Amino acid sequence: MAASAVVSLLLVIFLVNYGEAILCHRCMSSMGGCGDHVVWRMYPWRDCGSSFCVKVIEKVPGEEPRYIRECEHILLKSTRHRLRMPVLRRHGYCVPARKNDPHNPLDTTDSRFTYCFCNDWNGCNSAVAKKISLTSMGLLTAVAYAILRNFFT
Hints:
The chain is of the alpha+beta class.
């Protein structure tokens, strides 16, 4: 009985941790296959924990747009992105970067950079969802408990 309770508890802990993470593409457009569309075979998903997947689009006049796909918490380590990243970060939002210009405080956005945020499915910054619903987790726990209870009795 105690062993089945421990196994059930471990199963629940595994499923809760499994449901919190999101996997994102991590690449730059200077690398082949990481332009407007990502060649997913070249850039496998990386674990981003519970942060957002971010796609940064830099529009340079006379050139093709540059893309950066990365985890939000990694981009926030860079001062360049930390100062430009919009304060409002929600799933599905693509917003222009902040312009921190002390000489022109009324000009608040920089339209050369666009930050797109997502966190609903793996690889959304480019698919199979990694999140597991609470109902599925409860059902799996009940099934595991029933099987293990019969196994250990």
